[in-house]
């Protein structure tokens, strides 16, 4: 997965908005005005932060060395995923969708 694939996948979800509220180097995806994914455009390899159920967040960190506590985020609810090829794209997409669903269900 590269940044173009990530962007395309995020935008496939209903009511998603993208923007740069933190500056030109951080791409943010929101639903219902709340962030469900953010990524630094300068990261090599690609990394992104996604919201996660707290228990699942811990489990994923234990299972995958490329899943870390959320950088600059609430580490209980957010993971940083380093896209280094160690996790299949289908799982990355699953985690993105999980994050979207967690945020989307908390409608205003």
From TrEMBL:
Coiled coil spans: none
Molecular function (GO) terms listed? DNA binding
Q: Which UniProt keywords apply?
A: DNA-binding
Q: Which InterPro entries match?
A: YjbR, YjbR-like_sf, YjbR/MT2646/Rv2570-like
Query: Know the name of this protein?
Result: Predicted DNA-binding protein, MmcQ/YjbR family
